[in-house]
Amino acid sequence: MEGLKAVAFDLSPEPAMVVDHEGALVAVNEAAEALFGQGLALLARGRFKAALPPDSALVSLINRALAEDGPVRERGVEITLFGHPSFEADGAAAPLGGGAVLLSLHVKGGALGVDRAGDIAGLRSVVGLGRMLAHEIKNPLAGIRGAAQLLKSGAQAADAPLAQLIMDETDRVRRLVDRMEAFSDDAPPERSSVNIHQVLDRVRALAANGVAEGLALKESYDPSLPPVWGEEDQLIQIFLNLVKNAAEAAHSRRDGRGEVLITTAYRHGVRVRSSDGKAAQGAPLEVRVQDNGPGVPPHLRDHLFEPFVSSKANGVGLGLALVAKLVAGHGGLIDFESEPGRTVFRVLLPAAPASGAFQVSR
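-> structure tokens emitted (362 positions)
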């Protein structure tokens, strides 16, 4: 039974930690390690309670659980741990005996480190819909566009714009079908060692001459990063989508001081559970895309990676859902934090299998 309890603790999707009677952190599950981007050895340095602010909600939860000798809960707790920006979560604490307490967090949408990519509501239905649309809609669309093109060639000047409208709208539907069809590709990426900074430089160049034109497009790279284990074209697609979204948000500032920042770093101890739930692999390579736009509306934050969810007036809500699918296919994590004036998307990816010493990737 004790072994089963330990397995349940480790496999729990909610971040969980055990604090002993001296306030030291003695156990964390994989969800907690992924949340804070560190393993137990780093998380447990020093006294856990002593490292928290005196007015910390977590300290209050621990003390209440011990005083009441029973489980306690608190909603909307502001969490600040291990140098990460604060985020909101529902907290729970339960005494384990001997002064030890089990802490668990239900992280609300948008907090760092939660593996949202592996649990996208409705993604499978979109896969099936994409397959159907590809076969049932593309052929008649081609016929409609061809007919409109013929009509335009022989139309009077006053009617030509209507024929062009049919062609434009047909092209728009075709692009939507193409984007949905991307969900139907279940083949794993053909991965190899990829220089992540070369990928980001290409994305930056594309954005600078397009959607990010006129913005301050900055970078802060860790030159010691090893290669990422991924498919280059998909990685470009992932980060081009994120930079495009960030640029559009930054452009919406009225003061004209829009800014997009791309950063990379190495995060020790991050492990991601595979799709079969049986194994976990490291995903220490972090890429952040940050903008200073208005932020993600609160009512969308829990659903941002779901298909057909968009904050744009004319958006179809497939870009971030596809990004999440591609990141998950690489064995990575994607998440975000957002507030007015600052939104950060974080992607964690596995490093290429070691062939020797660390390789400098830029």
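The longest helix spans residues 160-181.
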